[in-house]
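haha ok so turns out i had the wrong file open the whole time. this is the CORRECT one, sorry everyone. sequence first:
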Amino acid sequence: MTVRIDTTRGELIDERELNAPRAVVFKAFLDPQQVAYFWGPVGMPVPATGVKLEAWAGGAFETLMVSDDDGSEHLMRCTFVEIVEPELIVFKEHAMASPHA
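then structure:
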């Protein structure tokens, strides 16, 4: 995994290489059931009902992570910027004042 920060553009770039066919990884990233399975840190699972995917430029990408410790919810709200099958998925995360903003 490579993570770079482009301060001139205000971007965080996360690149990963996986030992799997590109088409399989691409499809998994756009399948709510599979995103729920792999998204979020340990102790913050994402229920399948907590994933919203509108897989087109301008579409929504949201995940609701729920803390195993106290049940608190943490919503990540993004917009897809670019999707090029099967090689590129770009999304922009929106800053939020509260988990339910």
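The mean pLDDT is 90.
again sry for the mixup
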